[in-house]
């Protein structure tokens, strides 16, 4: 993809990188520059897409968490709290979290298949399949610890919402998150998420049967972040074999983000200011 500005320090464009500080910015710059030197930039299209989808996953989780927190802060009196719009928005955010999360996983899988020439067909290049995971391990041994400890998270046939592929498929194709508003708030919040995908609405609400919004989002985001970070390190190691003398000088560099922009009228530009959604909180 030739869509990044000339002389830009990296090619991870159209991604709010400051929203995912868990991914070291200097590593993204290092990989971009190594790939540019080696003329292998086209091999990283899927990883670039994965970065964007990872940020979307994080933003969906933050929106769900924000809704839960706002409702938890409402006054407890003799009235039962009712907020159907909040429940709908929260369920949508949770569904988006697993949808974008699975899209991130898919892009990383395709990246592995392409960058390391694994030879799998596109539909088969999915980490939820054990045959593909085995193929990945044969070429990328650095992933052994993660994949060994993440079988339950990658199991597409699981019945628990702790499986990213299973939760995504069930909530998109068969049902939707069965999330009840619990009032007054309990230790797992106001909008807890069922641990079992087919859980009945009559199931007792407690930490044994439900995740808090925070814990559910953290579970999937931490797994995705760990996988992405390992993939990033493996790619850098691969590129460094061809350019061992490269020196990364971006440890303290300001994070630079690039999004398409067009002026709607002729005007003199004095500078750039951050909009309200991107300003530090």
Round the mean pLDDT to the nearest integer and report it.
93
Question: What portion of residues is helical?
Answer: 40-55%
The outline comes out as globular
Low-confidence stretches: none
The side-by-side strand order for the widest beta sheet comes to 1-2
Count of beta strands: 2
Structural class: mainly alpha
- Largest beta-sheet details: 2 strands, antiparallel
Rg calculated over all Cα atoms: 21 Å
Descriptive labels:
single chain, two-stranded antiparallel sheet, globular, 281 residues, 1% strand, mainly alpha
How does this structure look, described?
The structure is a single chain. This protein is mainly alpha-helical. The chain is 47% helix and 1% strand. It contains eight helices and two strands. Strands 1-2 form a two-stranded antiparallel ribbon. The longest helix is centred in the middle third of the chain and has 32 residues, at 84-115. The chain is globular and about 70 Å long. The model has no long low-confidence stretch (mean pLDDT 93).
Strand and helix map with partners:
Blueprint: H1 25-38, H2 45-72, H3 84-115, H4 130-139, H5 144-148, H6 151-154, H7 164-174, E1 193-194, E2 210-211, H8 213-240
Antiparallel strand pairs: 1-2
Helix pairs in contact: 1-8, 2-3, 2-8, 3-7, 3-8
Brief summary of the model shown:
The protein is an all-alpha fold and 281 residues long. It has helices at residues 25-38, 45-72, 84-115, 130-139, 144-148, 151-154, 164-174, 213-240; strands spanning 193-194, 210-211.
